[in-house]
Amino acid sequence: MPIENIEKNKLKDMLYKMILIRRFEEKAAQSYGLKKIGGFLHLYIGEEAVAVGSISNLNMKNDYVVAAYRDHGHALAAGMDPNSLMAELYGKITGCSKGKGGSMHFFDYEKHFFGGNGIVGAQIPVATGVGLKIKYKKEDGVVLCYFGDGAIHQGSFHESLNIAKIWNLPVVYICENNQYGMGTDFRRVSSVDDFSIMAQSYGMKGKQANGMDVIEMYDVTKEAIKSAKSGTPYLIEAKTYRYKGHSMSDPAKYRTKEELEEYKKRDPIYSFKEKLKEMNVINEEEYIAMDKKCKKMAKDAIDFAEKSPEPDLSELYTDVYVGVKI
Amino acid sequence: MAGLRPIVEFMTFNFALQAFDQIVNNAAKMRYMSGGQFKMPIVFRGPNGPAEYLSSQHSQATQTFFAHVPGLKVITPATPYDAKGLLKTAIRDDNPVIFLEGEMMYSWEGEVPEEEYIIEFGKADIKNEGNDVTIITYSKPLKVVMESVTLLEKEGINAEVVDLRSIRPLDEETIIKSVMKTNRCVIVDESWPFVSVASHVGWLISNKAFDYLDAPVELVTSEDVPLPYNHKLELAAQPSVEKIINAVKKVLYI
């Protein structure tokens, strides 16, 4: 769809969500540096256009998102509350998973955000199962399933695609190829450079997309959803780049500064903002006001998280089983 | 089975669960199913057990899963010295060996001789001699056990510490001998309590040293829940000095 045909408010919302993700991640990184957040923290900075462009197609009343452990961007794009996400990073009871999950395990059953999953590739069968539920109950919905370039070689991916096509499930599989599986260049561990061709092995459709371009992600996902809902599941390879290391403990010495700078020149937020300015959708002042609002939301989320109480020790024994306290 | 001697390093044993079928159905079964034709000299090693702030999927002490399976050997060193000697034995062994290294133990220091030495499997090590109570443990919890022992000594309680080092094969003789000496026993295990190494050793003692016991055997394990992310909660879920001292006092009726 030509960008001119997309509603102006929709375009503004996409820009806003990308900025919010970036400001949220920057604040989370600061708090991690202050040791207020522990464990792994996988930042989404640089990859914002992938989640925002694709999820902007969804109606979260009917549709579902299933993500991996780099899940902050998807949760925000799906409309989860930044306060509850930051509180989760702080391990507080007000967090979206009551402080039991942390960075890798954001969940919201009501909002159809099914994680936040920590084992590489293990969420792909989960997403496929959600697709079966939609089809079985004859609902009008679709599942977007995200995973990285490291996960695509797991058996769980290949088994899921096969069954998704056999049963014609409404699932769009989105491989976020940020080029490095932790510190390993994806070309060193893949027999093919173009992941989208893997779709053909299972009789599905596949396409590569520029994951640094939110509109291209929006368009390709729209086409993919149409296909998935009409019985042919779809695989998108989003070519993207993470500006930070795999997690906070990764100094990212396996790549050059020049490479990073090259991607920053194609920054998904900056380039989209410039495009919207050219189209007179927003002006610089409006952009600055939008950025200010996002910075404030991120800061407010930190305040909320800091002021929130820790879970009571008795929480250790809740939620193991449904309806039973042990 | 075809002639190589691989050493497989898992980034963490939580991820080894994705290879569980290969370990359990292939590595552990080939020799038996083929009527003894094949050797399976393979070592699976890597970090095991909770680290910090990693939540449920990344914080599991997986020893029970593997120890349950005949055909596998399960080795659990707790000191740098034992790790070297046992790893050499593991590599030379012609059977599949699960070699579990506590994730938090990599920063621990200890004397390791330059020269060659090996430690036989199935030989527990007395890490502290005592007469009042036997504390049986293995792997990472040895640290909190030794801290507890120091505090207990100040109260005049002398605990004997049996470090199993190897779960399968298990050194039943050293366990029973120590319990027969002290007549009281606490087992400290960082995995879950239900059908665990700790519960097995507890049964063993009741079966082979029942008449020597002056108190029921106590277990100090992780709580029977997945590990949460919140730090206060995750620490509360695991064996601690306080829990060990309480258990020791319970078996001593003080």
Explain how this protein is built.
The complex is a heterodimer of chains A (326) and B (254). Chain A has 326 residues and is an alpha/beta fold. Helix content of chain A is 41%, strand content 10%. The longest helix of chain A is centred in the N-terminal third of the chain and has 26 residues, at 8-33. Chain A is globular. Chain A starts with 7 loop residues before the first helix and ends in a 19-residue tail after the last helix. The relative contact order of chain A is 0.17. A five-stranded mixed beta sheet of chain B has the order 1-2-4-3-8. In chain B, strands 5-7-6-9-10 form a five-stranded mixed beta sheet, with helices on both faces. With 254 residues, chain B is an alpha/beta fold. Chain B is globular and about 60 Å long. In chain B, α8 links the parallel β9 (185-188) and β10 (218-220). Chain B folds into two domains: 7-107, 3-Layer(aba) Sandwich (Rossmann fold), CATH 3.40.50; 125-251, Rossmann fold (3-Layer(aba) Sandwich). Classes of the chains: A alpha/beta (326), B alpha/beta (254). The interface between A and B is medium-sized, with 27 and 23 residues.
SSE inventory with pairings:
The complex is a heterodimer of chains A (326) and B (254).
Chain A (H helix, E strand, L loop, with lengths): L7 H26 L14 H8 L8 E3 L5 H6 L4 H8 L33 H14 L6 E6 L6 H12 L4 E7 L2 E2 L2 E2 L19 E6 L3 H16 L4 E6 L17 H9 L2 H11 L5 H24 L19
Parallel strand pairs in A: 1-2, 2-3, 3-7, 6-7
Antiparallel strand pairs in A: 4-5
Chain B lengths: L6 E3 L3 H4 L3 H8 L2 H4 L9 E6 L14 H5 L5 E3 L4 H13 L4 E6 L22 E4 L4 E5 L4 H13 L4 E5 L2 E3 L3 H11 L2 E4 L8 H12 L9 E3 L10 H6 L4 H11 L3
Parallel strand pairs in B: 1-2, 2-4, 3-4, 6-7, 6-9, 9-10
Antiparallel strand pairs in B: 3-8, 5-7
